Amino acid sequence: MPGKPADGAPRWARRLRLPEEMADFSVRGFHCGRPDSRRVLERHARSFLTGFNTAVESAGTDRVHERLSALDGGERGFAYEGAGMACALLDTLLFARGRRLAGLLAGPGRPYVHLVHVGAGWALARVPLPGARGRLGLDPLLQWLTLDGEGFSRGYFGGRRAVARLAASGPPSPQGAVRHQGLGRSLWFVESADPERIADVIETFPADRRGHLWSGVGLAACYAGGADDAELERLREHAGPHRAELAQGAAFAAEARRRGGHVPEHTHRGVLRLAGVDMATAADWTVAAERQLHGDGSLDDFLAWRDMISGSALAAR
Predict the structure, then answer these.
(1) Is the CB of residue 250 less than 8 Å from the CB of residue 221?
(2) What is the per-residue pLDDT across 160-191, written as a single tens digit (0 to 9) for each?
(3) Where are the alpha helices (DSSP H) in 105-194?
């Protein structure tokens, strides 16, 4: 067929490929003074790029699943996040009503449902068409994780300047609260998992946003890793009055890793230190809280989900 290479992937879609330099912290202007943490986090960023580029180069999601299944279990979630961005981007540009995303979430992609929804948020941040989220066929509750993806993309692509602009912006809307969770996750990468630098950045934000940011930091710390035990303890101390939100993010990471079927050692360590309980207990908090929701898939439901998990963390102290 004209305009398509042998495997059926559109040539124009291949032009969407993201360059490897996007994973290089020195190119992005991120903190490079922590070589061990940088190495871990750059590996995750490269896995994201692998997932994205695989998805834009492949005619169908079967090929995506095949290639991503060959990745290390600890990296596969990041790759599915990247693939989620690519599929959502193509579905949006082609008005495909979530066909590629549905294929990505079928079979081998289902355990990474949280990451795929976050990845879709990266796409929505790049192509902010009215009503695009509603046309992607997303899970009613998890669709709000696209807001987390939007917030993360703003920090990761925009770096410190974008973070500073957001710190000086007006009060967040309810949707902005979840975007700030994603922005907090991005700080883990921008500052190479440095507890003091992250805490200093969060202090530049108005008080009503700090809990959302710490939630994202807890999620990134426990899902991505990159900090040792002493640094995790310092991170918890810096969170101060927002330790429950930090623990809530850790619980989100615990359940996402458990669903993916691979729980690395850094997730066990991180959850124990940031949430004060073992990984399985924290993951169970998220499941128990979800069962108490109204089930209408509203943003209020999603925010209540987070609040109930934070409440479980407070009760466990």
Answers:
(1) yes
(2) 999 999 998 888 789 999 999 999 999 999 99
(3) 113-126, 145-167, 174-190
The gap between the terminal CA atoms of the chain, to the nearest Å, is 62
CA 56, 59, 62, 65: dihedral to nearest 10 degrees?
Answer: -20
Both structure tokens of 28? 């992005």
Q: Which residue has the tokens 């834009």?
A: 56
C-alpha span between 305 and 311 (Å, rounded): 10
Q: What is the pLDDT of residue 12?
A: 73
Q: What is the pLDDT of residue 6?
A: 34
pLDDT at 49 over 90: yes
**Which pTM value belongs to this model?**
0.94
Both structure tokens of 167: 């710190």
C-beta neighbour count of 162 within 10 angstroms: 17
DSSP letter at 293 equals S
Q: How confident is the model at residue 4 (pLDDT cuts 50, 70, 90)?
A: very low
- Can you tell me the distance from the alpha carbon of 189 to that of 197, in angstroms, rounded to the nearest whole number? 11
Structure tokens at 251: 């619980």
Entry field: residues in the chain? 317
Place of tokens 């700030």: 180
Token code pair at residue 266: 């850094």
- Distance, in Å, from the CA atom of 121 to the CA atom of 153, rounded to the nearest integer, reads 8
Residue 242 DSSP class = G
Single-letter code of the amino acid located at 286? T
Residue 282 CA to residue 218 CA, distance in Å, equals: 12
Q: Are 30 and 190 in contact (CB under 8 A)?
A: yes
Q: State the Cα–Cα distance between residues 244 and 240, nearest whole angstrom.
A: 9
